[in-house]
Amino acid sequence: MKKIFTIGTALLIFLQSVNIHFNDLVEMDKLFEHYQFHSDEYGDNFIVFLSKHYGKLKASHSEKHQEEQQEHEQLPFQHQSQCSQLMAFVVEPEPIFQSSSEVPIDIVSNFHYQVSYSPIWGDGPFQPPRQA
To answer: Which domain of life is it from (predicted)?
Structure first.
């Protein structure tokens, strides 16, 4: 069941990312009916049909055939979208970063830093830290 849900969700995300919605899949029969009409009436092949309805010839075809405007609006892939965002929430039983260390109150240090080289630039902001 998990695999079916995962595959279905991945397929849904993929189809929406390439701007294909469920309504487009339902309206595919109208696309084929309109293609059949163009094939019988004008002798168009499928590539020319796609160019007339989705490509370079769309503007000229819409101007010449105003009587088909009602059918053109019912074809799939006619919607416009501006922005799509996906939000995912992951719920973990334990936090990812779990801090169990405590901050010590009294720090005893026996670290002593002694310069073992002579800097050529002198004292500046890019020197190692020193303990007083």
So the answer is: Bacteria
- Distance of alpha carbon 34 from alpha carbon 61, whole angstroms: 14
**Rounded Cα distance, 65 and 2, in Å:** 50
Within 13 Å of residue 85, how many CA atoms lie on the same side as its CB?
A: 2
Query: Would you call 68 helix, strand, or coil by DSSP?
Result: helix
Q: Which amino acid is present at 129? A: P
131 vs 43, more confident: 43
* 78 closest CA partner among 120, 126, 10, 30: 30
pLDDT tens for 19-53 read 777 778 888 888 888 889 888 988 888 888 888 88
Distance of alpha carbon 13 from alpha carbon 98, whole angstroms: 33
